Amino acid sequence: MSENAYANPGIRLRATHHHVDREDEVNLGFWVFLMSDAILFGTVFATYAIMVGATAGGPGPKQLFDIKSVVIQTAALLLSSFTYGMASLSLKHRNGHGRLIAWLVVTLLLALVFLGFEVHDFLAMFAAGGGPDRSGFTSAFFGLVPLHGLHVTTGCIWMVALIVQMARYGIDEDVMLGLQRLGLFWHFLDIVWIAIFSIVYLGGLA
Amino acid sequence: MNELGGHPNWHPHFPGGISGDGDGYRKDLHSHLWGLVLALTLTAVPFALVYWHAMTRSWLLLAIGIFALVQAMVHFRFFLDIHPPHRNVDQLLLVLFSAQILIMMAGGTVWILANLHSRMY
Amino acid sequence: MSLTHFIFGRLSLHSLPFWAMIQHPTVGNIVNGGIATTAAGLVVIGAVMTVGLITRFGRWRYLWTEWLTSVDHKRIGIMYIVLAFVMLARALIEAVLMRGQQAFGLGGGFLSPDHFGQLFSTHGTIMIFFMAMPFLTGLINIVMPMQIGTRDVSFPVMNSISLGLTVAGAMIVMVSLVVGQFSTGGWSGYPPYTELAFQPGVGPDYWIWAVSLSSLGTMMSGINFAVTIYRRRCPGMTLMRMPLFTWTALCTSILMIFAMPPLTVATLMLALDRYLGFHFFTDAAGGNMMNYANLFWLFGHPEVYILILPAFGVYSEVIPAFSGKVVYGYVSLVLATMAIALASFGVWLHHFFTMGQSAAVNASFGVATMMIGIPTGVKIYDWLLTMYRGRIRFTVPMIYSLGFMMLFVIGGLSGIILANPSIDYQVHNTLFLVAHFHNMLIPGLLFGMLAGYHFWFPKAFGFRLDERWGRISALCWIFGFMFAFFPLYALGLLGFPRRTVAYFDPIYVPYMMVALFGALIILAAFTSLVIQLVVSVIRREEYRVPAGDPWDAGSLEWSVAAPAPEYNFPVLPEVTARHAFMVAKENGTAYRRPERFADIEVPKSSPMGAILCVTGGLAAFGLVWHIWWLVAIAMLASIAAIIAHGFSRDYERVIPAAEVRKDTMRWLNAVAELRPASRDHEAESVNMGFAEHERVRELAE
């Protein structure tokens, strides 16, 4: 075997490490996850739609839903989407640590308001004999709405974890990627809530 | 390490591009504020319609549905910055593909179960 | 609640497999209990022996650092396939037991209905979730990143977590042999039979949590693979220049992402019914059990395409390689794959034609089902035309491919028959259906996986598998399958229902006997596979293929050493055409020394996969046995681990350029010393992984 095989007559092989845009990749991955979550919610919504009439002689939407509480929850969640957006702007335009954390804390508080009213509603439903074990309709309700609530709770835990990471590492690459993804998650959950208040609450009370 | 603590060549790219100046911030802020105003309106109207029983049930459901869809699009456009034509065509295609799968699954479910229901009672 | 109840939940001495036969020693209990105890004993002995051998040879540290915490896609893939083979062994034994019961089932047989029910449930659950899915996930893991010219998948730690969750699910199914019983509701778990009213025990809970763990892992793999293929292809590799196996991997991932959620919903809703008294699928209080079938098959149909598409990808690599030709109709194969993936979401109702929908609904889905056969037909023609006028070598993967092409088409035709609702009403849930889906899965999926195993084994381990034992195994699989399943078509048409433990009409007996004979041949096929592996390891020096290209194939994974280095490529390739490595060989530009070597960043090992495997498995076990403190601790530990992982910042390690240079030059110098081997001699020891090409030979002279 001659040496010629290993001469290098101008073959252009990239000698440097091919740079993968990590931010792009991570965000795409999270989007894909959100799409699978959308399908998850979608099938639970479809289940709700076909079981909304299955009250089995028990209480239905008009007996169990409190529209005022839903208005408050909706306002809280929508505002929290806005405040998270403000946090994102702080991040993007480098308005400083303090502003960013302040907006995040406000978002968290609004989320807790949302969750508080929601849990209160659930307890009221139990008291009115409309717990999940009453009928197909209540099961479908309690399969859907707490699923969203669990997602919001997870988002809150994530937010706290990111705030602690910020305290420890400053706003480094990983924190920033985390905040971007949490933002996507947060807006996604607000969109799911639009579907919930429209289909479940308004649809039930119409 | 730059001041953000990341790799030297790394900087985040946000929709619309990063900027240190006031203009970009104002534009983004306007977008968010518009989004909030529109979303609040699109929420308030259906709630009001239901609360005051402004129309028959079928029309109410249709109205609720339309407002919900429009508000979802508002969120996508103003909060998430996803809209045609888009730099990152992948994300838009992904959303549309997912929407199609969702429609097939949810729509198919409702069609099938409604059909079964009508044949049972 | 007493203290024992708090600590052990509903676990008790009654949960042991030999309890019933000790308490009430009837013949039936002794036979069934004996079989169950033997199985449990094998699990326990197997576990003890594994732990014992590792300890005896002092390999715990090695196992932990090199395998369990590895985030290298090749290692993870190998572990997936190891899992698949172990679970295949168990599920095959279950199959033989069932065939035995049915062969001697005239008037009763030797298995109790309950035992038989558990057998067909575990057989199906294991084969789908713990054999087929891990096997294909493992192959995609090993091959796809190299085929697209990158170093690893997009999310290596998540890859390890996927593996951990799948293993946890498999362990839950194995534990069910030792304590408690498995569900008797089949792999599909239909209520009301899996609701508390009919099965209040642990069986359906075992099923629910094993499947949930596995499906969570699969969903994450789907995201991982899709993003990798979208974002990590090497420069110049457009989508239409990707190898076909990568194309099917992409479509499979999309199916995984979108198909697993309905399964999660169905199983978790069933869990809510069982644990918290919900009424999703109960008979009373407004439950709708028809929705379960709907939700399950929303998952179940795309699932079978998840199973088959990677196999199609394997055939698209193997058939051209062993025909000595470039694949025919690349574009049509890509379009057919995409069409299959999309259409697979529109046909799920054909699994429950008989549930009561109107003829219009049934007909719509029936038509859609028939249409989905068309793109598969296109693929068969493409593969046939690839072989046409090629120089065909009857290697093991080619034998599997030929068996596939002939047998799978028969299964596909039976599918078109079943797609007609009127006919389906006659044969739904008979052995005709069982014959159909085994006809798709065995010659389709399994042959593809085994062909892929044989094909890529040298790339993973550096030496070929023994051809002779491979051929014996392949032929046994082909003939074993035919004897075991063709009689089932007849049995189904004669009215024999599926999942039936015993019967009273002697007309069925001859068919059942033939089927049992087939099952024993399949057992021989599997044994041959084991022998093949043992022989290959013993003879590995003779079978070494260090140059890395034993089959003279065309895609990028063959352009690196065997076994592949940790970082796959010393320098990431740039491609300008399809079949990039074949083009390089033809142009004489293969095996070039890179101009420059650079440091390579690789992800650091992580214990997350192993941790979540343990916590996930413990949480599942606790849920099954109502050991709530265990569930709480395991779930908290999982959450804590995930949050802690978010705090990690030091997750890459650098392989210095000097080391890369040293490895690469050692390999290239070794290649320089080799004489190329022609395809005619690829099964002999002259094959050192360096394929003969005119241009290469010219350069050598």
Q: Features of this protein?
A:
heterotrimer, B: 121 residues, mainly alpha, 70% helix, 0% strand, disordered N terminus, C: 701 residues, Cytochrome C Oxidase, Chain A, 23 helices, disordered C terminus
Describe what this molecule looks like in 3D.
The complex is a heterotrimer of chains A (206), B (121) and C (701). Chain A has 206 residues and is an all-alpha fold. Chain A has helices at 22-51, 61-64, 67-92, 97-127, 136-169, 173-205. Chain A has a single domain (3-205), classed as Cytochrome c oxidase, subunit III, four-helix bundle (Four Helix Bundle (Hemerythrin (Met), subunit A)), CATH 1.20.120.80. In chain A, helix 3 (67-92) runs antiparallel to helix 4 (97-127) and helix 3 (67-92) packs antiparallel against helix 6. Chain A is elongated. The termini of chain A are far apart. By secondary structure, chain B is mostly helical. Chain B folds into 2 domains: 1-85; 86-121. Chain B has helices at residues 22-51, 57-79, 89-120. Chain B is flat and about 65 Å long. Mean pLDDT of chain B is 81; it is low at 1-11 and 14-19. Chain C is mainly α and 701 residues long. Chain C has one domain: Cytochrome c oxidase-like, subunit I domain (Cytochrome C Oxidase, Chain A). Chain C has 23 helices and 2 strands. Chain C has a two-stranded antiparallel sheet with strand order 1-2. In chain C, helix 6 packs parallel to helix 8 and helix 14 (396-418) packs parallel to helix 17 (467-493). The radius of gyration of chain C is 26 Å and the shape is globular. In chain C, 56% of the residues are buried. Classes of the chains: A mainly alpha (206), B mainly alpha (121), C mainly alpha (701). Chains in contact: A-B, A-C, B-C. The interface between A and C is large, with 57 and 64 residues.
